[in-house]
Design brief:
28 strands; 1 helix; 4-stranded antiparallel sheet
Length: 338
């Protein structure tokens, strides 16, 4: 992971965290950043003020046996069960395969900042990490919703955890939204149908709604806990979602190399190509609001990576910062913590 200076665009530091760091979550006080390390079955906890990896936390136990029941002898020989990340052994020049584990992906911080919820694509498991101990406090296996078994995204609203479940991709079969009681992780009500690939969830507490980006149908839908749905068109392949200060939502349209400004009150969509001085940029994935709320930082995740600053008033890209290719997430952290 790279820390960039927002004023100059210069790389201030790099932090080694593991294989495939993806979704980023910042603590409410801005002092800790969490990154789910998809290929290393762990969450990285980063001290923002000191710009260092504080610790890693396993999101699922290291297995002693393979799916066919045979013993994984190297895990026993190397005392792998005492490690806090698969990256200690599985890395490009280490044990193979370099990507290991159950593929943690969805990441959600509890409102009180004491627990992390982590969903796993391979095992359909939702784990709760106790951030005081760094240990797995409990976990549940989420029952399939038809063929939808992969819990790809999480959101929290009104003491309920919303989970977006999708079939193993590629698929045209329906996905589902499931609500869980946060204290017990028990299902609340019936599953709500979605498209085959619900890519992201965004909770809007002031509207008592949760938004879903429907990657395969090029739409963003708004759901309430009674099952009501309002759908707006985006451009092909909406992925990440960002709430904006003016009650709009920004959708990152991966396949169309564009962004869409969505206004659910007015029922309107405005889609803009992702370009700067006539140069196009590809595959936007996620965005974060700048500290002043007047601009957004957008990840363009092509093989030539770019971090783009968009002025939200003008709805134009005003700066391009080069980053590593195939980057995925972005978070804005305070620069003057004492």
């Amino acid at each position: 992971m790279a820390l960039l200076d927002g004023a100059t665009g210069a790389v201030a530091a790099r932090i080694e965290v593991g294989m495939l760091p993806h979704n980023l979550v910042l603590s409410p006080d801005g002092r800790v950043l969490y990154a789910v390390v998809v290929g290393s079955q762990a969450v990285a906890e980063i001290d923002v003020a000191e710009v260092r990896l504080r610790r890693t936390m396993l999101t699922s136990p290291v297995p002693d046996r393979r799916e066919d029941g045979t013993i994984i002898q190297p895990h026993i020989d190397q005392a792998a069960f005492s490690h806090s990340t698969c990256y200690d052994c599985h890395r490009p020049d280490g044990a193979q395969p370099k990507y290991a584990g159950d593929r943690p992906f969805g990441l959600l911080l509890s409102p009180d900042g004491r627990h992390l919820y982590v969903s796993h694509l391979r095992s359909s498991r939702l784990a709760v990490l106790n951030l005081e101990s760094g240990e797995i406090e409990r976990s549940v296996v989420l029952e399939a919703a038809g063929t939808a078994t992969e819990p790809v995204a999480l959101a929290e609203m009104n003491d309920q955890i919303w989970v977006a479940l999708r079939p193993h991709q590629p698929s045209t079969l329906p996905g589902a939204l499931r609500r869980l009681d946060a204290p017990t992780l028990a299902p609340v009500g019936d599953d709500m149908p979605t498209g085959a690939d619900p890519g992201a969830l965004l909770a809007l507490p002031d509207r008592a709604r949760v938004l879903v980006s429907n990657f395969e149908t090029d739409t963003v839908s708004e759901h309430d806990d009674a099952g009501a749905v309002v759908t707006l068109a985006a451009a092909p392949g909406p992925l990440g979602l960002l709430a904006l200060p003016n009650h709009q939502v920004l959708a990152l349209d991966y396949y169309s190399n564009a962004v869409s400004f969505l206004d659910f009150d007015a029922g309107t969509t405005r889609t803009l190509p992702l370009e700067y001085h006539g140069a196009p940029y590809v595959n936007p994935t996620h965005a974060a609001l700048a500290s002043d709320g007047r601009s957004a930082w957008i990840v363009s995740s092509g093989t030539d990576g770019h971090l783009l600053e968009m002025n939200l008033t003008m709805q134009q890209i005003v700066r391009d910062v080069s980053i590593d290719g195939l980057s995925f997430g972005v978070a804005v952290v305070p620069g003057n913590l004492q």
